[in-house]
Amino acid sequence: MMIEMQDVYKTYPNGVVALNGINVRIKQGEFVYVVGPSGAGKSTFIKMMYREEKPTSGKIIVNGVNLAKIKDSKVPLLRRNIGVVFQDFKLLPKLNVYENVAFALEVIEESPKAIRKKVMEVLDLVGLKHKVRSYPNELSGGEQQRVSIARSIVNSPKIVIADEPTGNLDPETSWGIMELFEKINDRGTTIVMATHNKEIVNATRRRVIAIENGKIVRDEAKGEYGYDA
Amino acid sequence: MTLNTFKRHVRESMKSLGRNGWMTFASASAVTVTLLLVGVFFVVMFNINHFAKKVENDVEIRVHIELTADSRQKDALRRQIEAIPNVKEVRYSSKDEELKRLIKSMGEEGSSFRLFEQDNPLSDVYVVKAAHPQDTVKIAKQIETLPFVHKVNYGQGTVEKLFDALKVARNVGLVLILGLLFTAMFLISNTIKITIFARRREIEIMRLVGATNGFIRWPFFLEGLWLGMLGALFPIAALSIAYYNVYQVYEQWVSLPFFELLPFSPFMWQLSGLLLVIGAGIGVWGSVMSVRKFLKV
């Protein structure tokens, strides 16, 4: 499964040009950082991949399907192949850890038995097996992000998209989260991560795509963060 | 949808009632208040309607036949009356029967009319009933033009006024009930909109993990259903108790001969069912309408 963008433009209804001709290919199993100043179009670029936003023109091909063309009713099926992780975790405060993760499987109508097995496996992977009954407000930020990651990968998607997953975490916790993403990537899952975390990008030396003013200004195989701070 | 999924929807909708405690209370209260009002209106309306029907059905046309008419001519008249559209029933009442009826209706004083039994001055009568009471006047006017009709009597003037009054009462009641229901739906959809607004995050996450719109809608649909039915319980109980007592008191102490209340059973059972259905309806409608705008991809 590959992600491919061809001549993607995006102008928001208020006239803001977010993407200004993007061409990119991301192969299955890659680990890609998306960097760039705030407001440069990183978020829009990422949102295109799970069709939170539609391009004004151009093609976005994920899993062989052009997302610019698919009907709204097909979006849920697309999302089942893509895990999404956010800076603010997006956990449901009134559900405990187990329920938050199980949520993603209930939605795709898995059997309760399969849900139990998969949820426990994935909580084991993220190292939170001992906190299944805890509620989000009883967890640290890092733990909450682990739950959110567990939810994103519980139905074994081929791609995980993360929008500044370490943005709200202290450096030490961030490293723990990054190790987890490495572990997920090792299993063959594509990871596309927008980030402002210079140290992590520079230390891990992965592919770096830099976006400025809606254009890709740099695309390096073992790149650096390339910005101050 | 699998059975497991349906069970999940039912479970989630129930849990959600508990989790959104105060909002559940607010929404159900909105249903309660409206249904209480609607319920009272229904009680009044149904009773007025019951009264109206009874009065209307008592309205009949008395066709006095010319004294000179022989039995063949009377038969012909009968056939002519029956041929008029919307005539439901034509009953013959001889002048002797008419006299008996008169004496009976006068009670004590009626006995003085017994003298007339020797030489009865009344005429034979056809008692005509219209299929729809509202047609009475029209039919009476037509009968008046037929041969061998001496006089037509249907309570001229009074009947027209009565029918007009009943028509107004019914229409006013209908408008009021429709208005109330509309207000209720508005009120409830707003309350539920607030509850759902508070839960847009939940909907957002459901969409992110690949839930279809149908899947997202189900628990809200069910929640609306429970809210509506929950909200209907109190008005049903309150109205039943109140009506039961009013009915007892009225029957025992007031009891006007021309106005009787609908008996508790089956009326209150039907009304309870109606309120439950209306409650469920506005609950479901409110939640489905409110969730709709969060489902645009």
Note down, in words, how this protein is organized.
The complex is a heterodimer of chains A (about 230) and B (about 300). Chain A has 7 helices and 10 strands. Chain A is α/β, with parallel strands linked by helices. The longest helix of chain A is centred in the C-terminal third of the chain and has 16 residues, at about 170-185. The model of chain A has no long low-confidence stretch (mean pLDDT about 90). Helix content of chain B is about 70%, strand content about 10%. Chain B has about 300 residues and is an alpha+beta fold. Chain B has a 4-stranded antiparallel sheet with strand order 2-3-1-4. The relative contact order of chain B is 0.16. In chain B, helix 1 packs across helix 8 (about 215-255) and helix 2 packs across helix 9 (about 265-290). Chain B is built from 9 helices and 4 strands. Chains A and B meet through helix 2 and helix 3 of A and helix 1 and helix 7 of B.
Primary descriptors:
heterodimer, A: 229 residues, alpha/beta, six-stranded mixed beta sheet, four-stranded antiparallel beta sheet, B: 297 residues, alpha+beta, 9 helices, 70% helix
Major sheet summary line of chain B: 4 strands, antiparallel
How would the global form of chain A be characterised? globular
Rg over CA atoms of chain A: 17 Å
How much β-strand is present in the residues of chain B? 5-15%
- Please state roughly what percent of the residues of chain A sit in beta strands, choosing from under 5%, 5-15%, 15-25%, 25-35%, 35-45% or over 45%: 25-35%
Gross morphology of chain B: elongated
User: Looking across the biggest beta sheet of chain B, what order are the strands in?
Assistant: 2-3-1-4
Structural class of chain B: alpha+beta
- Termini Cα gap of chain B: 22 Å
According to DSSP, the number of beta strands of chain A is 10
Ends apart, CA distance between termini of chain A:
34 Å
How many strands, what sense, and barrel or not for the largest sheet of chain A? 6 strands, mixed
